[in-house]
Amino acid sequence: MAQESGYRWGHSGLTADFDLDGDTPRLVRLARPGDGDVKDAAEAALPLVDVTLFGVGTGWSGPRFTGTALGPRLRHRAHYATYGDSWHHLTVELLDPASRLAVFVEYSSPDGVPVLRSRVRLRNDSDVPVTVRSVSSLLLGALPSPDVLDVHRARNDWLAECRWYGEELRESVPDVGREFHGHDGRAGIRLAGRGSWPTDGHLPMGAFTDRTDGRCLLWQVESAASWLWETGEADHHTYLSLSGPTADDHQWRQVLGPGEEFASEYAALALGDGFDGALAALTSYRRLLRRPHPDHERLPVVFNDYMNTLMGDPTTEKLLPLIDAAAEAGAEYFCVDAGWYDDEAGAGSGTAAGGWWDGVGAWLPSARRFPGGFGAVLDRIRERGMVPGLWLEPEVVGVRSPIARELPDEAFLRHEGGVRVTEQGRHQLDLTHPAARAHLDGTVDRLVGELGVGYLKLDYNITTSAPGHLAHSRAWLGWLSSVLDRHPGLVLENCASGGLRMDGASLAVTQLQSTSDQQDPLRYPPIAAAAPTAVPPEQGAVWAYPQPDCTDAEIAFTLGSALLGRVHLSGHLDRMTSGQLALVREAMTTYKSIRADLRTALPFWPLGLPGWTDDWVALGLRTPVAGPTYVLVWRRGGDTADRLLPVAHLTGLDEVRVEVLHPSTPRGSAEWDGAGVRVRLGEVPAVMLIRVTS
């Protein structure tokens, strides 16, 4: 609890208790109204922020950025709370008397939502430069003991995204006997992003669940660059530190001259009953945070010609029948993916070994591929009632591209010594430079203004750890916002080799998020089911790529995977029989009948978060105000054809209606049994989309 001299800030969904009167200001309790206290926790609270500088490092031996020398020296100067646009804000102003570094800890929280957002601003009030090595975005101590907490993380790899796993925190933070040593152990969990793909390796997320009462604390670092989170033990309690790039982990540093400022990346914490409850709060927060856009309301079906279809080799001859078939199937956008700019002889190649890979950058339509003009293809898309879209990889310039010679060296990210970053035959633009921005502004304005493109799939297929990427990533997000300011109806899809830039900062600006490049429909279900942990359902693009050589069950399976997200339709629809195309059209009609509910629905997992090899996978979406509940279930194997899918918020109700929405001709059954939906799927593979109403 807060001390008598403490300060309480918050609202109906969240309260934060501070001790601002001691030598070191501290956040002693973060909770929802009605949550119990953590026993004897106040004395284990940590400083509000930890900072390391050149010459001022950690306060004790150990490779972690808590317990720093500077953090406990910070003194309270002022604090002020404001409220506006349904958000509560609190700034706590601190000063280090020795270095004259002013620190502004900025908290915010949407009214009624149990989520805390935080960042830290630094200002050098001295008359000499200081170099920052690390700064926490949010530091929180006084959490329950590692004895009672499980910790959860999410591996995120190319073709295998959003794979959550957990363990007891004591497995990584052993009890070393503080009473004998007078110190906490050095063990902990330290998870860092790597390179310029912020979600390569792991999502910048994590969670604690308390085994004694089921409460959950879930977090994300909102960075399109590099990030770090760290947890361990402090005075018999657990601490959590969330931060952006650091000198030790990411070759990052920031020099602040007298009077200069730097702001950390944002981080957010969500509280809830269990993982599902905390993720529901985080989903609501993500929706409030993002840029408003009509796409979030309409949720149109997008056909993309790439996956398992043209694979980067579009031509007029191949596209025209595909455009007609996509329109018949119910697509509303048609995106021509990679290769439309490739004017070299031979088949399209998106590999570093040859083809267009190291020649991109000018983004001009190919005359060879479209002998009648590319405009004729785009016109055909519009004639069939769809909005044309294009794939674009704006941040890269191939080493053979004329743009690599036209732009100055300063327009590219460079290593120390001024050498351009070159990865896989490509240079990386630096959007802090006006020439780089002008090049991309001209490109987008030409594609949108002259060609009439209404959708851009923005890909990013190289990664680098070069210095300067944090500034570039912030300039990148600013550039995306400026594009949408000029073209407010344009839809932007965020992609980086699938889901390798699936971070909160990017999702707040772009409208759709690619969840994976996975080409095997049998391996997509755990990705599709877990994607709402990283992205709201209405933004998560899931591939559905039925083929003419598929059985009807296989067509239903791949289509079903996308029905509780954003449909990214693909496949050789132009080669299908009329009966097969009817199956695709029926699935798209089903999706359009429910998509209005996806905009506000909150995810839950009837079978828990999926394992990569699970035979049964399930995702639920619960709409607010007694609306319908949707459950999507896949069966990929196993001997058991029956499974109970618990739906906790409807447990005990007598009058519950269960409808099978997909496939249109069910190959199984679903019925309510008082605690959930009992399904029977006799075939493998099989999928079923169920609507449950009470």
UniProtKB/TrEMBL annotation:
Tell me one Pfam family matched here. Melibiase
Q: Does the keyword Heme apply?
A: no
Keyword list (alphabetical) reads: Glycosidase, Hydrolase
For this protein, the record's Gene3D superfamilies field holds: Aldolase class I, alpha-galactosidase from lactobacil brevis
GO MF terms listed in the record are: alpha-galactosidase activity
Q: Which GO terms describe its biological process?
A: carbohydrate catabolic process
The record lists the membrane-crossing segments as: none
EC number(s) in its UniProt entry? 3.2.1.-
The broad enzyme category this protein falls into is hydrolase
Record-given protein name: Glycoside hydrolase family 36 protein
Task: Write down the species.
Answer: Streptomyces sp. R41
Q: What is the lineage of its organism?
A: Bacteria, Bacillati, Actinomycetota, Actinomycetes, Kitasatosporales
